[in-house]
Amino acid sequence: MQLLTVGSVAFDAIETPFGKSDKIVGGAGTYISLAASFFNRNQALVSVVGEDFPSDVLDAMVNRGIDIRGIQIPEGGKTFFWAGKYHNDMNSRDTLVTELNVLGTFDPVVPMEYRNAPFLMLGNLSPDVQRKVVEQMAVRPKLIAMDTMNFWMDIALDELHKTLKLVDLLIVNDEEARQLTGEYALKTAAKRIMDLGPRLVIIKKGEHGALLFSADEVFYAPALPLEEVFDPTGAGDTFAGGLMGYLSIQEELSFDSMKKAVIVGSALASFCVEKFGTQRLEELTKNELDDRIKAFYSLSQFELV
Ligand code: AMP
After folding, report:
1. Which residues of 221-258 are buried (b: 16+ CB within 10 A; e: fewer)?
2. Segments forming the whole domain that contains residue 236
3. How far does residue 178's CA lie from ligand 1's centre (Å)?
4. Top mutation candidate among 233, 270, 279 for ligand 1, by most atoms within 8 Å of CB
5. Which of 48, 134, 150, 234 has a CA that sits 20 to 30 A from residue 98's CA?
6. Which residue's CA is the nearest one to ligand 1's atom 14?
7. Is 207 contained in some domain?
8. How confident is the model over 113-132, as a mean pLDDT?
9. Does some domain include residue 38?
10. 186 bridge partner residues
11. CATH of the domain at 235
12. Ligand 1 probe mutation, 82, 121, 202, most atoms within 8 A of CB
């Protein structure tokens, strides 16, 4: 089953209490596709990079089964650059630099071969760009998931509302859910989000796990207590990529398969934070991932009687 993702492919510079990276490859689309590749090797990424972007990174994507024909490389363009600095608790960060470069004029084009894809992941980008991708689909996908952030709520709320009407699943963090709805209680916030369009909502709570809501069910996935947290960049995107990669190879989209997908996404995200950038995900084996999924299971399993 094909999975199509739209998301940034970027250069990042990251500073955490444990160190500082040079310009490394990042971007929401990069993390999403990389995470999804643990399950689905029939996926495509729609994005844009500059001529300064290393071709071996694109080759590595292809080797992981990611179709890159939807990644535009405009002549003379420069790749999107983002720099961020984490505070001591690693739960919050400041954006130091955002240079949109080629992302500023990005007009996404979905390759013909992927216009029937049953799974669509809209990475955090302008809601306008996200909508343009949905509108190019020849058939309405079985599942459209979407990420967004406070920034778009501040500057493009009307556009965001239009895009929300088109999607099945919104994945946001607790702060974003509260800002979008004006509700503090997350259960109420999830209901308000459902009034805006999505029938499913995932609210991430960083190192405290994630909540999955449907109209009448709730599921809580803890985050695994880790010995090492080095760089949280991309954890949210890795979560979304793992979740969509897993769902895209399931027979049916039940609430039970959604629950497992949330655990799989959480397990992948727990690896992402162990090293700078995409490094840990690149080294990760399927066996390590399977063991960690089991660790999630034993973390919260108990007998009622
Ligand atoms: P996360 O830590 O999951 O919020 O995602 C971090 C990634 O998002 C980084 O690799 C950045 O390159 C990318 N990013 C940051 N700001 C933006 C933006 N305004 N648009 C698209 N991607 C962004």
Report:
1. bebbeeeebbbbbbbbbbbbbbbbbbbbeeeebeeeeb
2. 3-300
3. 20
4. 233
5. 134
6. 27
7. yes
8. 98
9. yes
10. none
11. 3.40.1190.20
12. 82
In this structure, what token pair is assigned to residue 101?
């470069």
Distance, in Å, from the CA atom of 22 to the CA atom of 11, rounded to the nearest integer, reads 9
Shortest CA distance to 167 belongs to which of 196, 189, 138, 192? 196
Instruction: Indicate the helix (H) or strand (E) that contains 287.
Output: helix 286-300
pLDDT tens digits, 6-52: 999 999 999 999 889 989 999 999 999 999 999 999 999 999 999 99
Residue 137 has pLDDT above 90, yes or no: yes
CA of 80 to the centre of ligand 1 (A): 10
C-alpha span between 1 and 12 (Å, rounded):
31
Contacts of 30 (CB under 8 A, 6+ apart): 7, 8, 9, 10, 61, 234, 237, 278
CA of 217 to the centre of ligand 1 (A): 30
Q: Please check whether residue 243 lies inside any domain of the structure.
A: yes
Q: Which atom of ligand 1 is nearest to the CA of 30?
A: 10
Query: What three-state secondary structure class fits 211?
Result: strand
Tally of CB atoms within 10 A around 118: 18
pTM above 0.85, yes or no: yes
Q: Distance between CA 259 and CA 65 in Å, rounded? A: 26
Which protein residues are within 6 Å of ligand 1, measured from CB?
8, 10, 12, 26-28, 82, 98, 124-125, 233-237
Nearest CA to ligand 1 atom 10: 27
In a domain, residue 305? The reply is no
Q: What is the pLDDT of residues 141-151, one digit of tens each?
A: 999 999 999 99
pLDDT in tens, 201-241: 999 998 899 999 999 999 999 999 988 888 999 999 999 99
**The total number of structural domains that make up the chain:** 1
Cα–Cα dist 190/178, whole Å? 9
Q: What atom of ligand 1 comes closest to residue 239's alpha carbon?
A: 3
